[in-house]
Amino acid sequence: MTAAIRIVLLAAAFATGALAMGWWSLPITAFAWGIVGTKTNRPVLIAAVSAALGWGALVVWDATGASFRPVAGGVGAVLRINGSAFVELALVFPFVLAFCAAGAGHALARDD
Amino acid sequence: MRVSSLLFFGVVSGGLCWVGARGLGPLPPMGPLLDPAGGALALARTTELPRSWSGKIPGLSAPVTVTYDDRAVPHIKATTVDDAYRALGFVVAHDRLFQMELQVRAAAGTVSEFNEKAIAIDTVARQIGMGWGAERRFALLKPGSAAMQSLDAYASGVNAYIDQMGPADLPIEYRLINKRPMRWQAKNAFYFLARMNQTLSFAVTELNVLRAQLLVGKDAAEALYGPNASIQEPIQPNGQTAPRFDLTPLPPPGAPDSSALSATKLVALATSAFGAFAATDETTRQASNNWAIAPSRTKAGYALLSGDPHLELSLPSIWYETHLTVPGQFDTYGFTFAGTPSIVLGLNRDVAWSATNTGADVVDFYRETVDDPSRPTKYMLDGTWRPLELHEEVYRSPSGSVLRTDTMRYTHRGPMRRVADTWLSMRWTALDTNNVEASLGAFQAAQRATSVSSLMDAMAAYPGPAQNFVMADRGGNIGIRSTGLYPVRPGNGSGLLFRDGSVSASDWTGYWPVKDYPQAINPAQGYLASANQQPVDPKVRPAYFGADWPAPWRAMRINQRLRAEAAWTPTTVRQMQVDSGSARADFYVPQYLEAVARLAGAGRSSPEIARAASALAEWTRSYSPNDRRAILFENAMDRLGPMVWDELSTSDANAAMRPRLPGGMALAKLMQQPDSKWWDDRRTPALETRDDVLARALTLAYAEVSARHGRDSSSDEWRWGNTSPMKIYHLLRLEPFSELEVETRSGPETIAPRASNGTHSASERLIVELGPQVRAWTTYPGGQSGNPFSRFYKNRIPSWSRGKLDTAIFADVPAAKLISTLTLTPGDK
């Protein structure tokens, strides 16, 4: 399986997990991938990219809503950041969290 | 395995999970907020009402159709009354779920479970017994009674909505505080009503008289804050065609009355113990107007009704507009509170009604004798020890940990608190158990009324908070009644005393009979109006009803206009609702100008005084947004009070010992006494007169306004709209979800008032024409949705601020106005 296919499948897993279980599915999925994907090339980076892509796809879905800009802007304002920064945060957060959780799983599973 | 890698990644991901789950510092939990499937951004997909949607409600006897018009007002058509309330619960929960819960928590004293900083607010709620009162009142509802059935039905509708909510439907506020909605209980409506009672009727009138007595003696104190207003423009017509001014001179400030010290200290401490200090101030900020015009004074020959309750403005608004139809039962339209199964103010096919706050004195304190002053378990009544009811109050944090515990004690009168070395109990009509069924039942019965007479019957048992209900019907009748429970007190009937709690002879002996309530039907004058003024002229009925009444400036303006016009239309009524004129300004501006002229005549003027007076003389006495002189007048008025009433200032560090400055009526009275000692400023060696003080207040005001807004008094910096906007805060005071720069035609004491620095004003406006086809117009400063991102969150603020009303669709929603249809069907229990 190529890295691209892995990324797509894993991104789908992250998106499905978010829909089914909420945000906690992200570190769990990434950690699990870190363990089972330990033999693959760059599993930690793949997890991070996939998580950002999976959540990104959902963000795109959200963006089809009529009030996406007001929502991003409003919530961002409550957090004292602008709307686009809030959207970026919704991509950076899964990237970093998946990177670290997959890294932990990977470190646990490595036998060297 | 690399331990260092594991440690590093483990710690960092653990930290991120912590921030995701619990937040960090001011940051809310980021995980549920950022989650695009069900987090904040997902709200973008659920903000707008779907064209067609459905829901299930357990217990529904038949399908209910809800059509939303183009203002997102739901029109509910049900086959049974209970089904209508089930549907109402469902749709209100859809739009206002967080607001519903917050209001109940505010009464229950559990807001600290959302934010532990709210523990002070919670403490007040519990110390005045709101939850205790709500529980005992709810417990008296008969199972199977109409009131209980409606509450159960409403609760099942709310909970059905909660159960069917998707992750993306969770209101943003819950996401920010990381909470889930609580299950709705039938009793919650009683908590909400307790909260409304606190807002509208928890005033400790004993307070200012005693505080002032300590500083300026009994005679002066009673004259300043006494039980009768010095300008009489009562709600119940007294046969006069103009306000009656009581020109009895104000007694000069007397010697401090040290005999009042113990009582004053007791009051001060009691206000701390019962949290009454803030509540008293809050109550004085509430206001409202309503009036009804008989067919003889309308152009079309139909009765007209107008109402605009003034409350603290909020987003979402306290009101929710709706139309409830149950064929054969009622067809009613108007405003409900989020959490209340009924239209509260509105109309049906025959009658319309609105309300203003009465402000009667319904709170008293008693000195109790207890068995053990440190930890009492019994109190003395007529020589017998009676057990106290004890409640352990537990305050919890958002995480559920215990923040504090407190033992609350209750006598048969109500909550009892230790105040210095005295135990004081409190009685408040809101905690009493009379007329419980009518708390909501009166409103529900009003929905079925067919005439003013039957509406009065329906509302007769309404217990409170006492309201001046104005009403009109299609038969051309108009009526008004100040309705609520008013205590009958022993002795002289005064509510300005602390009574001996050890004898039952101190207790209230009952409540006023309804026939004695202030009221009128079809008066010869052809109209009826109320604006929170003293309801009955004491010359007509001298019985004690309350004290420290607000100045009737709005009532004077309303009555002045109603007297002057004899061909009213809905349009002219609408214009009057936002009349920017002011009886207060009409009274005081000439006083300032004449004072300056007299000083000039005596050679005691100055260029500064002349310049300030010249600017004020240009004022049209209008509070329109473009006006550039109202700011000067208001600044002068703000200064005048402290300058005149300097005798009432005290260096006492305890805020509860400081009297609130007397209201506008005492000042108006003092204007007739140019050389009264009150005018002298004790802080200066000179002996000031009225004219000196007025001129100084005006001159200082001009200097300050110039310094703050520029010397060019024609510039936009002086615009009333710029300097004094209305501020409509989100419930959690989140500024991005608030509207803080709203220009209106409102000023202090104008018909549409601007009070409390712009946070209080007309919370809704209603006009009804009672013709063959009843027509209604409505607005309020907000929108139907509680979702800050919805186009219906604050869509009505622009028209509200301009004084425009929308035509209510009191019929089937026409296709062109239909935006959404909700079909509710029976669901599994």
Largest interface: A-B, 49 and 45 residues
Number of strands of chain B: 33
Shape verdict of chain A: elongated
Quaternary status: heterodimer
- Total strands of chain A: the figure is 0
Radius of gyration of chain B: 28 Å
Radius of gyration of chain A: 15 Å
Q: Tell me the span between the first and last alpha carbons of chain B.
A: 53 Å
Largest sheet of chain B: 11 strands, mixed
Question: DSSP strand (E) fraction of chain A?
Answer: under 5%
- Helix content percent band of chain B: 25-40%
Taken in chain order, the helices and strands of chain A follow as HHHHH
**Number of helical segments of chain A?**
5
Mean pLDDT of chain B, nearest integer?
A: 92
Count, helices of chain B = 24
Derived from helix and strand composition plus strand pairing, the structural class of chain A reads mainly alpha
Helix-strand category of chain B? alpha+beta
Helix content, binned percent of chain A: over 70%
Name the poorly predicted regions of chain A: none
Q: What's the average pLDDT of chain A?
A: 92
Approximately what portion of the residues of chain B adopt beta-strand conformation? Answer: 15-25%
Essential attributes:
heterodimer, A: 112 residues, mainly alpha, B: 829 residues, alpha+beta, 11-stranded mixed β-sheet, 24 helices, 33 strands
